[in-house]
Design a protein that fits this description.
Blueprint lengths: L1 H12 L6 H7 L19 H14 L6 H14 L7 H9 L3 H7 L22 H15 L3 H18 L8 H8 L16 H12 L5 H11 L3 H12 L11 H6 L7 H15 L2
Helix pairs in contact: 1-3, 1-12, 3-4, 3-14, 4-6, 7-8, 8-12, 10-11, 10-12, 11-12
Length: 279
């Protein structure tokens, strides 16, 4: 799961809010392209790093509290500062030194996709009540709004449907409706903004349109807009369903430029999550 999130994130980051000409010319999944704003290439962004923070907290023995969640976000960033975060959140993380300080200084009134982009690992939790509780609490740290919370819960529940309930992609819409987290636009065909509604609508539309991870990543980037968040969430969710063909190009794994927190590190986390929650 985390490996796939990282690959999709790193690939799609090269097309984040790019013009259509760049997407048409280079979205062929053969290699990474530079990020238009920051210039980095073949590196994942905050989508993956914050998913790692959630995964590590799940694997630890700490209580699931606002401070422990915030502390995990801060520690992951501090050990490996990277571009890709929103400008304001990057500056805040750079200035503070603890989770308590993050909670003190942040204004968690955003309805953007930041809470949803890190929620896929929560699907490993053993029951829906915990999935919703954990997804809600982690969203509140940075996105304590109805849309921020709903988007986080929706992503976590879809992951749970695949990982624990062994459900099908075709079950997603009814499952979310039954749990009270529906209302997304499942016929999304335009650029996806950073707003959570747009992002999750794009994710669910793309996720249900194919059963090939390679095609899924291409479709997510082709939409344009916040391509890395849409791609990271969608490909991460695809990894949770056995019916999805895991056919991301090998070249993207070979070319990922993450020498410290790269594929070996992510594979170890994936194995620990599976061993702990899928016995």
């Amino acid at each position: 799961m985390l490996k796939e999130i990282a690959i999709a994130d790193a690939y799609a980051a090269g097309f984040e809010f790019s013009n259509k000409v760049k997407i048409q010319n280079y979205n062929n999944l053969s290699r990474y392209v530079p990020h238009d704003l920051y210039g980095f290439e073949a590196k994942y962004t905050d989508d993956t790093q914050m998913s790692i923070a959630i995964a590590e907290l799940l694997l630890g023995n700490q209580a699931w509290t606002p401070e422990s969640i915030a502390s995990s976000f801060v520690s992951c960033f501090k050990r490996d500062p990277r571009k890709g975060y929103s400008k304001g959140f990057y500056e805040l993380l750079s200035q503070i030194s603890s989770g308590a300080e993050l909670l003190e200084k942040i204004k968690p009134d955003s309805s953007r996709n930041g809470a949803a982009m890190r929620s896929v690992p929560l699907g490993y939790l053993s029951n829906k009540i915990n999935v919703i509780h954990y997804a809600t609490e982690q969203a509140k740290v940075t996105h304590d709004t109805p849309m921020g919370i709903s988007s986080s819960c929706a992503v976590a529940l879809v992951a749970h449907l695949g990982l624990i309930l062994n459900g099908s992609v075709s079950d997603i819409s009814k499952f979310l409706e039954a749990e009270g987290f529906s209302g997304w636009d499942l016929n999304w065909h335009t650029e996806a903004s950073v707003e959570a509604f747009d992002t999750i609508s794009a994710v669910l539309t793309c996720l249900q349109s194919t059963r090939s991870t390679k095609e899924l990543l291409w479709n997510c980037v082709e939409l344009g807009g916040d391509t890395d968040s849409v791609s990271a969430i969608a490909v991460g969710l695809a990894a949770c369903f056995t019916e999805y063909n895991k056919d991301l190009p090998g070249s993207l794994f070979e070319l990922l430029d993450e020498p410290v927190y790269g594929l070996k590190f992510l594979s170890a986390l994936d194995n620990k999550l599976s061993n702990k929650f899928c016995k």
